[in-house]
């Protein structure tokens, strides 16, 4: 009997996996614990999944860790999450570096407390020359925020005479997004049984395969990731064409 990992076709890995890490609060509450207890255990899943992606050779992993809307949560939860973030970055940077993982951050960094920005900037610098897995943390991120930022920058550049509005294309817009250096995610996973996108990478997920699981984030492990990848590999990605066209293209290659 083949293990789940052995069932993965390494030639057809998604280049970019994006994950909405949901369900920490419910996981904790089901155990009669405080929500922060769930976030704390969620870090173990992050470690495990980052390791899993690095072992497989996935190019990009984007983790939605904190949304623009999450600032509206109770103050104690927000500050607890910020402390957890800083603590985790401090502890894990060395491991990231050892494993040749390059950290990136997307989102409104200016919203983060100064001590968190400092810690993140250090980690970004330390891992900046690594060439393995690109780990993208979405922090104080929302897609609508990102699109508004992009429009503002484009408008500014039009005003400054740097861009001719007639030449604006999908490529132009792509260059002004926070994800300009990354390929679009091919697989988007959301844990904990919620079937929504919650303002995450709305533009970039245009052709992503979506995978939803009831597993709460603190319980999500490599085996769950493998299941999602195997499911991804069983799907036919048509990009608007017909199944027959794709078969003919495959035959002519
Ligand atoms: C995801 O878990 C983590 C963050 C949004 C920071 P939640 O905290 O949303 O957990 P639930 O959805 O309330 O269970
Ligand atoms: C999305 O989860 C944001 C993150 C996982 C960071 P939420 O729990 O905030 O999303 P909603 O409120 O259920 O849509
Ligand atoms: Mg949630």
Bound molecules: 3-methylbut-3-enyl trihydrogen diphosphate, magnesium ion
What is the percentage of strand-forming residues?
5-15%
What summary fits the major beta sheet? Answer: 6 strands, parallel
Mean residue pLDDT: 97
The number of distinct helices, counting runs of at least 4 residues, comes to: 8
CATH hierarchy, class: Alpha Beta
Cα(first) to Cα(last) distance is 32 Å
| Assigned CATH superfamily | Decaprenyl diphosphate synthase-like
- Helix and strand string, N-terminal first? EHHEHEHEHHEEHH
Give the second-level CATH assignment, the architecture: 3-Layer(aba) Sandwich
What CATH calls the topology is Undecaprenyl pyrophosphate synthetase
- Alpha-beta content class: alpha/beta
Helix content: 40-55%
Count of the domains: 1
Q: Could you list the spans in which at least 5 consecutive residues all have pLDDT below 50?
A: none
Query: How many β strands by DSSP?
Result: 6
What is the gyration radius calculated from CA atoms?
19 Å
- Numbering strands along the chain, what is their spatial order in the largest sheet? 3-4-2-1-5-6
Mass-distribution shape: globular
EC number: 2.5.1.-
Pfam families: Prenyltransf (PF01255)
Subunit structure: Homodimer.
InterPro entries: UPP_synth-like (IPR001441), UPP_synth-like_CS (IPR018520), UPP_synth-like_sf (IPR036424)
Overview of this protein structure:
- The protein has a six-stranded parallel beta sheet, sandwiched between helices.
- The protein is α/β, with parallel strands linked by helices and 253 residues long.
- It has helices at residues 24-30, 35-56, 75-98, 114-126, 143-159, 170-175, 222-233, 243-251; strands at 16-20, 60-67, 102-106, 134-141, 187-190, 209-212.
- It has eight helices and six strands, in the order E-H-H-E-H-E-H-E-H-H-E-E-H-H.
- Strand 3 (102-106), helix 4 (114-126) and strand 4 form a beta-alpha-beta unit.
- The protein has one domain (16-233): 3-Layer(aba) Sandwich (Undecaprenyl pyrophosphate synthetase).
- 43% of the residues lie in helices and 13% in strands.
- Bound molecules: 3-methylbut-3-enyl trihydrogen diphosphate (2 copies) and magnesium ion.
- One 3-methylbut-3-enyl trihydrogen diphosphate (IPE) binds next to strand 2.
- This is Isoprenyl transferase.
């Amino acid at each position: 009997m083949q293990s789940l990992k052995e069932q993965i076709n390494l030639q057809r890995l998604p280049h970019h996996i994006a994950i909405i890490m949901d369900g920490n609060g419910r996981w904790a509450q089901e155990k009669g614990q405080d929500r922060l207890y769930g976030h704390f255990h969620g870090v173990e899943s992050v470690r495990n999944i980052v390791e899993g992606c690095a072992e497989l050779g996935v190019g990009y992993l984007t983790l939605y860790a904190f949304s623009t809307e999450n600032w509206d949560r109770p103050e104690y939860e927000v500050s607890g999450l910020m402390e957890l973030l800083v603590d985790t970055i401090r502890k894990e940077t060395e491991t990231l570096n050892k494993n040749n993982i390059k950290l990136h951050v997307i989102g409104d960094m200016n919203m983060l407390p100064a001590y968190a920005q400092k810690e993140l900037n250090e980690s970004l610098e330390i891992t900046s020359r690594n060439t393995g897995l690109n780990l993208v943390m979405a922090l104080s991120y929302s897609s609508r925020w990102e699109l508004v930022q992009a429009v503002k920058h484009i408008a500014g550049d039009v005003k400054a005479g740097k861009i001719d509005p007639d030449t604006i294309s999908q490529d132009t817009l792509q260059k002004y997004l926070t994800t300009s250096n990354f390929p679009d995610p091919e697989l988007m996973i959301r844990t904990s049984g919620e079937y929504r996108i919650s303002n995450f990478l709305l533009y970039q997920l245009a052709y992503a395969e979506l995978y939803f699981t009831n597993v709460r984030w603190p319980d999500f492990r490599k085996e769950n990731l493998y299941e999602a990848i195997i499911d991804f590999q069983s799907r036919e990605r048509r990009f608007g064409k017909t199944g027959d066209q794709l078969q003919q293209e495959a035959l002519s290659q």
